[in-house]
Amino acid sequence: MFKVAVIGASGLLGRAVVRELAAATPWQVVPTAFRHGGPQQTVLDVRDAQAVNAFVECEAPDAIVLAAAERRPDICEHDPAAARALNVDAVRSIATAARQRGAWVLSISTDYVFDGTQAPYRAGDTPNPLNAYGHSKLEGERALIEASDNALVLRLPLLYGPIVGWHESAVTSLVPAIIASAQPGAQAAPMDAWATRYPTFTPDVAFVIRELLLRCADGEPVRGVAQWSGDEPMTKHDIAVQLAQALGVEARLLAQPTPTDATPRPRDCHLDSGRLEALGMGRRTPFDVAIRAVLDAFMQNPQNGEPNA
Ligand SMILES: NC(=O)c1ccc[n+]([C@@H]2O[C@H](COP(=O)([O-])OP(=O)(O)OC[C@H]3O[C@@H](n4cnc5c(N)ncnc54)[C@H](OP(=O)(O)O)[C@@H]3O)[C@@H](O)[C@H]2O)c1
What we know:
- By secondary structure, this protein is an alpha/beta fold.
- Helices cover about 40% and strands about 15% of the residues.
- The two termini are about 25 Å apart.
- The site of NADP nicotinamide-adenine-dinucleotide phosphate (NAP) has 30 residues, from helix 1 and strand 5.
- InterPro entries: dTDP_dehydrorham_reduct, NAD(P)-bd_dom_sf, RmlD-like-bd.
- Pfam families: RmlD_sub_bind.
């Protein structure tokens, strides 16, 4: 039976991928985690190349979805060596082990490989990252392609989806400030109105990843670089307005017309999804529908956060 290892299965995206594969395929799925794994998940530190080799040898997957990473730009900026260990060196060792076993690797990257000055970006456009996170992910893309010719980089923009804590996504992390701003006498919550983002729903990405895995299972794996993105341009201020509506709170929001982040961020990295669309792939759930499902599920069941859990 087709066997898929999902590395980083305890994270925001990895959980959605495991859920999609379990619900919609008969495949054998091997989820791994590091610090936050459940009883069903194999513990694997991807920085340990020997452990990675032993895992791939032992499980012999047909395909590996790599969703483990350091994805927080501020953390990467302060500790680029730690970011590199996860976002570059671990990618190389997983791709090398996979090549030796003949497994296809799908490794997740980011729109932050671009500088945000010339959107929309096609997969072949020249990257120019502005921060340490973007640099590490771009190096990771190159490490993947160098180590294996049977691999795909999938670039994604800002993600949101079922959560186990508000902090898990840069979309839902706005919620505590939005709620606090609605309290009597509270100050308005500043929200970035400068950068345009394309929030993308993790169950939609998981759907796309399943479609890509299907092609691999059929012996026609997609290789190289592909991109997938939601199609609703929004600033964080726009996102906060929709979150406040969905939460039913009278938030006081202050639009910030210039960037205030200590870590430089690109202004608009809209990713062109044309390559996957031409293959007939993709699904986009409207933001207002998806965010209400995420908020309802988390408030009903904060331990799990999965819709219909
Ligand atoms: N979130 C976004 O908005 C966004 C946007 C664009 C691209 N991406 C990319 O999408 C991918 C998934 O991101 P995400 O948001 O799902 O990240 P996340 O929620 O922060 O999850 C990170 C995952 O990496 C695992 N991990 C961390 N250190 C590890 C280690 N040493 N060994 C093995 N696993 C380790 C974590 O496992 P434990 O928690 O069990 O330690 C967790 O499963 C990343 O490649 C990220 O760069 C994310």
